[in-house]
């Protein structure tokens, strides 16, 4: 049996310290055990990070809504050009097997019940202009979304409520690091019953061959779908960002600090951090807000960097790190 030497333990411990070597010349707003938070313009910090040094960028930037939000958002007509300046730097700093996961929501055209296609234009530009590869499109299922625009959904009743947001998984090369065994889901009762009986060799109507190898290929759990929802196992359920009773929300209220109005649930970054990185890897969120991505990275033993330009949101983010 091989043993771990003290030197190996020391190297591993060092690999989990905040990645101070990546951002030189800028003082962090605060540090955690494994991460750094910067109160800066994201582009300024991104430009300081060396090439090929970040394993995963996971973020949810301000969407191109037809009305302005307090945390800032670019107009639909300007959104693609605005975001590509950030994406160009993100591509540069990613490792060759790194990934960029972008959560972005759709929106409506102003004054009419039709949809904007700005987010599709962004995907095309990311691939055709910057040279990213679209590894896979995923979806965040969020049934708690408000029924808006109210004019079309709840007043005239001519549209239905949006319940998904896009999560685009881009990669720097066609072969990003990924392992879906890290995000397996529990088998359903039907699948457990089928496994107990044994899989019969057959050809499905679709043409797929089902052989006795299937049992070996699919042991350990069900392969996760590309729809992320609250059924995906999570170690972070008690830290749900949209809860009125989580530690972050309670402490912000007690301190009189504004709660970030557009938080995503911890399950979302958790899924991709597990799927696309290993312990000790570096995760970056250039629009970090209340630092949900950083909090999840910390729990999963990843080093991380978070950036935001609103100081009050970062004051609240400190509560996530005790």
Description of the structure:
- With 322 residues, this protein is of the alpha/beta class.
- It has 2 domains: 24-185 and 223-321, Rossmann fold; 186-222, no CATH class.
- The chain contains 11 helices and 11 strands.
- It has a 9-stranded mixed sheet with strand order 1-2-11-10-3-4-6-5-9. Strands 7-8 form a two-stranded antiparallel ribbon.
- Helix 3 (76-93) runs parallel beside helix 4 (118-128).
- The longest helix is centred in the first third of the chain and has 18 residues, at 76-93.
- The two termini are 38 Å apart.
- Residues 65-72 and 234-241 have low confidence and may be disordered.
Key terms for this structure?
322 residues; alpha/beta; Rossmann fold; 9-stranded mixed β-sheet; two-stranded antiparallel sheet; 11 helices; 30% helix; 18% strand; globular
């Amino acid at each position: 049996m091989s043993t771990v030497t003290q030197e190996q333990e020391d190297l591993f411990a060092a690999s989990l310290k905040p990645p101070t070597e990546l951002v030189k010349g800028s003082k962090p707003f605060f540090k955690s055990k494994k991460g750094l938070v910067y109160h800066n313009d994201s582009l300024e910090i991104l430009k300081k990070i060396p090439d090929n040094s970040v394993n995963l960028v996971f973020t949810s930037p301000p969407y191109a809504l037809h009305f302005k939000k307090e945390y800032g958002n670019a107009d639909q007509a300007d959104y693609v050009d605005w975001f590509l300046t950030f994406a160009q730097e993100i591509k540069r700093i990613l490792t060759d097997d790194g990934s960029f996961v972008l959560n972005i929501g759709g929106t409506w055209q102003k004054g009419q019940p039709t949809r904007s296609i700005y987010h599709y234009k962004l995907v095309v530009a990311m691939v055709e202009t910057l040279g990213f590869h679209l590894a896979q499109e995923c979806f965040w299922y969020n049934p708690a979304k408000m029924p808006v625009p109210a004019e079309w959904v709840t007043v005239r009743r001519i549209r239905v409520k949006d319940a998904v947001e896009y999560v685009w998984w881009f990669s720097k090369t066609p072969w990003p690091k990924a392992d879906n065994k890290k995000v397996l889901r529990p088998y359903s009762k039907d699948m457990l019953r089928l496994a107990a009986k044994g899989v019969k060799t057959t050809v499905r109507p679709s043409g797929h061959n089902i052989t006795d190898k299937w049992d070996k290929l699919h042991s350990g759990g069900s392969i996760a779908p590309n729809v992320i929802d609250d059924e995906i196992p999570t170690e972070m359920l008690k830290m749900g960002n949209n809860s009125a009773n989580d530690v972050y929300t309670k402490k912000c209220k007690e301190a009189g600090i504004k709660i970030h109005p557009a938080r995503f649930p911890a399950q979302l970054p958790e899924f991709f951090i597990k799927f696309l990185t290993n312990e000790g890897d570096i995760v970056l969120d250039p629009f970090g807000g209340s630092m949900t991505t950083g909090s999840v990275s910390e729990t999963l033993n990843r080093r991380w960097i978070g950036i935001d330009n609103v100081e009050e949101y970062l004051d609240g983010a400190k509560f996530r790190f005790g």
